[in-house]
C-alpha cells in the first residue's frame, strides 16, 4: 500500500473523538458544524485518518494515483432556482469524480471545501455530498468551511488505476481509431431548458440535477485498450477538440446520438452530460468489455483522421460550440 497525505485544512476533527465546545463556539459555528458532519459521514477504514487532523492520511493501492479538483459555483454551474442544495452537493461530487472516470480509474477519497453565506443550509448541501459519495463508492476524508458572499463547493478526488493498462490520457488517439460515446447526449442541457420553461420532465431534470460519473464504463474502456478518453462536460464538439489537439489527430463524425427530449444542438454543445468519449482501435474488444461488465454497448460516432485540421460532421464542418470560462 502507498500512504499519502492530503491536506484537509480547517476540517480539523479528532478521529474517534468529539471536539469540546469552547466559549467561542456556537451550535451553528464552524467547528460545531464540522463535528456534526464528521459524526454523520461514514468513518475511515483501519489504517487511515480522515476528518480530524491538519491532513488526512490515506492508503491507496500501489500504482498510479489520480488527483483532480473541480469547482462548482452557484449561479455559474448550477441554478439554485431550479435545484436544491442537495442537488448542488451531488453535482459537485459527480462532476469531480467524472474526471477520474475519464482516466479509466476508480475514485477513492474526497476532500470537500465549501464557502458560502452564513444562511446556507449546510445539512441539506452535505446530504447531497454524502449521497453522491456513497453512489460513487467514495469516502469524504476532509475539507474546509468558510463564509463567503457566494456559494462555492470545491471537491478534490484521490483515485487510483487498478490492474491492466495505465491511465487513459487525452493524448493517445491515433488516426484510424474509432470514436464512441457511452450514451446519448444533450439530456442535461434539455433538462435545464425545460426547467427554465417551468416544465419538469423527470429524466431530463435528473440529468441536469444529478449527473452520474461513468466509472464502470471508463474502467472497462481502459482495460479494453482505449487510447484516449474525455468526459463530456463542455459539449461534444469542445471536448472532442481537446482529444484532437492533445493527440495530434482530426476526426470525422457520422452520428451524434441525441437523448430523448433533447435537440441536436444540445447534444453537440450542451455539455454536463458526463458521458465518456472513447477512442479505441478495436471495436470488438471494446464492445465485449462492456458486455462482460453488463453495460450497454458504447455508441460508435466516428473515426480519428490524420488531418489535424479536420473537424467534420456528416460531411460538413462541426460547429465550434461548447462552454468555456473566460478572463478578458
How is this structure best described in words?
The protein is α+β, with helices and mostly antiparallel strands and 328 residues long. The protein folds into two domains: 2-160, 60s Ribosomal Protein L30, Chain: A; 170-317, Phosphoribosyl-aminoimidazole Synthetase, Chain A, domain 2. It has helices spanning 30-40, 85-101, 122-135, 187-196, 202-209, 215-223, 236-247, 264-269, 283-292; strands at 2-7, 55-60, 65-73, 106-116, 139-147, 152-160, 178-181, 228-231, 250-253, 276-280, 299-305, 311-313, 316-317. A seven-stranded mixed sheet has the order 8-10-7-11-9-12-13, sandwiched between helices. Strand 12 (311-313) and strand 13 form a beta hairpin. Helix 2 runs parallel beside helix 6. The radius of gyration is 21 Å and the shape is globular. The protein starts with a strand and ends in an 11-residue tail after the last strand.
Task: Give the class-level CATH name of the largest domain.
Answer: Alpha Beta
Percent of residues in helices: 25-40%
Spatial order of the strands in the main sheet? Answer: 8-10-7-11-9-12-13
Just name the CATH architecture of the largest domain.
Answer: 2-Layer Sandwich
Structural class by SSE content:
alpha+beta
Strand count:
13
| CATH topology (level 3) name of the largest domain | 60s Ribosomal Protein L30, Chain: A
Tell me the CATH superfamily of the largest domain.
PurM-like, N-terminal domain
Secondary-structure element order, N to C? EHEEHEHEEEHHHEHEHEHEEE
Briefly, what is this?
The protein is α+β, with helices and mostly antiparallel strands and 328 residues long. The protein has helices at 30-40, 85-101, 122-135, 187-196, 202-209, 215-223, 236-247, 264-269, 283-292; strands spanning 2-7, 55-60, 65-73, 106-116, 139-147, 152-160, 178-181, 228-231, 250-253, 276-280, 299-305, 311-313, 316-317.
Amino acid at each position: 500500500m502507498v500512504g499519502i497525505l492530503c491536506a484537509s485544512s480547517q476540517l480539523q476533527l479528532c478521529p474517534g473523538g468529539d471536539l469540546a465546545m469552547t466559549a467561542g463556539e456556537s451550535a451553528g459555528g464552524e467547528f460545531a458544524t464540522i463535528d456534526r458532519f464528521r459524526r454523520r459521514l461514514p468513518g475511515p477504514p483501519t489504517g487511515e485518518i480522515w476528518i480530524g487532523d491538519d491532513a488526512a492520511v490515506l492508503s491507496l493501492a500501489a500504482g498510479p494515483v489520480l488527483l483532480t479538483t473541480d469547482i462548482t459555483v452557484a449561479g455559474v454551474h448550477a441554478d439554485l432556482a431550479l435545484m436544491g442544495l442537495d442537488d448542488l452537493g451531488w453535482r459537485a461530487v459527480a462532476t469531480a469524480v467524472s474526471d477520474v472516470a475519464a482516466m479509466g480509474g476508480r475514485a477513492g477519497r474526497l476532500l470537500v471545501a465549501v464557502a458560502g453565506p452564513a444562511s446556507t443550509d449546510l445539512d441539506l448541501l452535505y446530504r447531497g455530498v454524502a449521497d453522491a459519495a456513497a453512489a460513487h463508492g467514495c469516502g469524504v476524508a476532509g475539507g474546509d468551511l468558510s463564509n463567503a458572499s457566494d456559494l462555492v463547493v470545491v471537491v478534490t478526488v484521490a483515485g487510483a488505476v487498478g490492474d491492466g493498462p495505465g491511465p487513459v490520457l487525452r493524448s493517445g488517439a491515433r488516426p484510424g481509431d474509432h470514436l464512441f460515446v457511452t450514451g446519448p447526449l444533450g439530456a442535461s442541457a434539455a433538462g435545464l431548458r425545460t426547467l427554465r420553461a417551468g416544465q419538469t420532465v423527470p429524466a431530463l431534470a435528473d440529468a441536469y440535477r444529478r449527473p452520474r460519473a461513468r466509472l464502470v464504463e471508463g474502467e472497462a474502456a481502459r482495460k479494453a485498450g482505449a487510447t484516449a478518453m474525455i468526459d463530456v462536460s463542455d459539449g461534444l464538439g469542445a471536448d472532442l477538440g481537446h482529444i484532437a489537439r492533445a493527440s495530434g489527430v482530426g476526426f470525422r463524425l457520422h452520428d451524434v446520438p441525441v437523448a430523448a427530449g433533447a435537440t441536436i444542438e444540445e447534444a453537440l454543445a450542451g455539455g454536463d452530460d458526463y458521458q465518456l468519449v472513447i477512442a479505441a482501435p478495436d471495436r470488438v474488444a471494446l464492445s465485449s468489455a462492456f458486455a462482460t461488465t453488463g453495460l450497454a454497448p458504447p455508441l460508435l460516432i466516428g473515426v480519428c483522421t490524420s488531418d489535424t485540421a479536420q473537424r467534420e460532421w456528416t460531411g460538413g464542418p462541426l460547429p465550434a460550440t461548447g462552454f468555456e470560462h473566460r478572463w478578458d
